[in-house]
Amino acid sequence: MCGIFGYIGEKEACSEIICGLKKLEYRGYDSIGVATLNDKLSIYKNIGKVSEMEKTITDLNLKGNVGIGHTRWATHGKPAECNAHPHFDKEKKIVIVHNGIIENYQELKDDLMSDGYEFTSETDSEVVVHLISACYKKEKNIEKAFLYAIKRLEGAYAICCISEYEKDKMFVARNTSPLLIGIGEGDENFCASDVTPILKHTKNIIYLDDNEYAIVTKKDVVVKDLKAKVVEKEIIKSNINVEDVEKGAYDFYMMKEIHEQPESIINTITNRCFIDEGKVHFDSLNINNQDLLNINRIVITACGTSLHAGLVGEFYLEKFAQVPVEVEYAAEFRYRNPIIDSKTLVIAITQSGETADTLAAIREAKQKGARVISICNVPGSTITRESDGVIYTKAGVEIGVASTKAFTTQVTALYMFSIFLARIKWIISKNEAKHLITKLYELPDQIRRILIKETHIYDIANKYYTKPSFLYLGRGINFPVALEGALKMKEISYIHAEGYSAAEMKHGPIALIDENMPVVVVALKSRSYEKIISNISEVKARQGKVIAIATEGDKNIKSLVDDVIYIPDCEEELSAILSVIPLQLLAYYSAILRGCHVDQPRNLAKSVTVE
Questions:
Q1: According to the model, what pLDDT value does residue 21 have?
Q2: Is 2 tagged catalytic?
Q3: Does the active-site annotation cover 463?
Q4: pLDDT (0 to 100) of residue 266
Q5: Which entry of 45, 394, 490, 606 is annotated as an active-site residue?
Q6: CA dihedral of 69, 70, 76, 81, whole degrees rounded to 10
């Protein structure tokens, strides 16, 4: 989950690395470190964020045209200077930065310590640099030493290494944890854990696959496998613009991304949904219709916000396509011997395409013969490359740690796929599909109508942001929205929040309700409306404070609750996309009022690339 940035070229590496690490802080921000190489290695590392350390690093004037940097999200070892990267060997002639988890690090560490190597950190990463050092003493060749080291590692890693022994080279490697190489316009090249910090320099990208390493000079990149055989790699041109990764006029990326949701949904449906034809089409599905018709079961696997989107998708697929669906935590999926076969379709949902647990889940599914489709926002990511087919969400870059437009575009993609599957199975007619697609095209304007109510939602947040706990309730297709609303609140405001099906309230959560417990209820006009109203009455009877998300025109609910946020009337199936918007804003303003850093919530990072 940490951020890596490496530079080799004609410029001063330190300033390039600092700029790169700033773009990567959403991947981790408990400590940072920079190493540059001139005649000798210069190293700086400390606890804190890049912005806090930038002046100190600049004043140190670290010289050199080669360098690596790291911004950390702690796994092994607490945030401390000794645990910050880069890590170096005893002579300080070799340094590495590492993302991931080395699962056999204790065994490697014991072996190295028995040979007299001393460790100065609590991290698993430090074993890597000592392995390289140990091999170099015998081979006197950094490439051979680097290859020796990575071949001994078990687990996930993205590694970048520079040394005084070969001053004109960077060595990089990956297994499971993402790492890519940017091909510079002149005599310079880059490496990074994702594309965002490279875009200001180049859009030409080489994506490393698992069990590959590369030798990077300022003029050339050579990729090899673990047998040291050269691998021919395609240079892929990124379609992301530099402006996409800037905040613009917004104070935080999260608010920018909340406001980008209408456009993100338009981009996701354009050239895929055709009203006149009652048709949905995907260019990159790569599974023919007959194979899809042979599917008798769908398993959706995901983590966090993507899992909540999957729970909404379960409703769509079972209602429209009439196929049984299960939604599985990706982290648990492969550890319980899932029963799947060639007639099972696995849908993996991930914003980044690098989520470690989701990646492991699709590998397990493919090993058992299932077909895999991923719903993903990042072209070229590992999960998209390993899936049989992909539905890209086209949400644009999402920097905010708390996902917003990822959720709404994932739900949109699942809605589209459900219509597509229902049509090829002849379950819904052309006219029914036309109606469903027409309603989908109405969503962006309906979201804009909700966003206009920001001030009202701020006022509600101002009433309740000091409360220690929130309860979120929903039923049917809006039960996952309750889960997502609670997740957003706890992620960025640090208020304890739980989401439940409203039907489950009497099975335990009702014990928590008193005058200090705000209860957010998604209470839209739907088949379960009367039951939701009964749940609201039960909360009010116990002095609970109720904030309702309600359908425009519902005057009755205003007299039953303390506060109400109206959303436009829409198809019940699409209500999950609209009802989540005010919950995103409620969490955002609660966090702002509590003085929290919305884009960098404590203990969290954007992409969970380790188990």
A1: 87
A2: yes
A3: no
A4: 95
A5: 606
A6: 70
